[in-house]
Amino acid sequence: MAIIISSGVTHFTDAIAQNDIEYESLGEGLSGGQIIDSIALVSAENLAWRVWLFEGAGHNHAAADSTSFLGYVTFATADGVRIAGAGNYHYSLKNLGLFYRSTTRKLEIGIQNTSASGKTATSGETGILTIKVGLR
């Protein structure tokens, strides 16, 4: 089993306006032939998110094609849960079963803000957004 974890300091640090997306290439050195089993997202802001998954790197709105597109998952604002009613919001999905066959050994992750309000740019803990992808 492998786990890809983004850094709240270096990944997904830009402000993300409504329906805009920020991409990061993660998982350097992954081997293909694995199953993406779970996605966990931690956010300082309770927003609605869509997480896009692609094989390889360098995707944008126009360049993504059917051979590199793995799938996406959607989190509503109601899916964000805080521990004891305070702190960051946690979102989680399991048993996804998305096949990752990449020969590029990278996973491109795009996080799209589908809320009416924008995500704040990261400054310390303000606007922090991290993602964890579980593979088996």
Please give a structural write-up:
- The chain has about 140 residues and is mainly beta.
- About 0% of the residues lie in helices and about 45% in strands.
- The strands form two sheets. Strands 1, 3, 6, 7, 8 and 10 form a six-stranded antiparallel sheet that branches. Strands 2-9-4-5 form a four-stranded antiparallel sheet, with no helix packed on it.
- A hairpin with a 2-residue loop joins strand 6 and strand 7 (about 85-95).
- The termini are close together.
Write the layout of secondary structure elements.
Layout lengths: L1 E4 L15 E6 L7 E10 L5 E7 L13 E7 L5 E3 L2 E8 L4 E3 L6 E7 L15 E7 L1
Antiparallel strand pairs: 1-10, 2-9, 3-7, 3-8, 3-10, 4-5, 4-9, 6-7
Order of helices and strands: EEEEEEEEEE
Give the helix proportion (percent range): under 10%
Strand content: over 45%
The backbone outline, from C-alpha atoms, is globular
Structural class: mainly beta
CA gyration radius, whole angstroms: 14 Å
What count of helical segments does DSSP give? 0
Which regions contain 5 or more consecutive residues with pLDDT less than 50?
none
Cα-to-Cα separation, first versus last residue: 4 Å
Described by strand count, sense and barrel closure, the largest sheet is: 6 strands, antiparallel
Q: What would the average pLDDT be, to the nearest integer? A: 84
Can you count the beta strands?
10
Compact description:
By secondary structure, the chain is mainly beta. Helix content is 0%, strand content 46%.
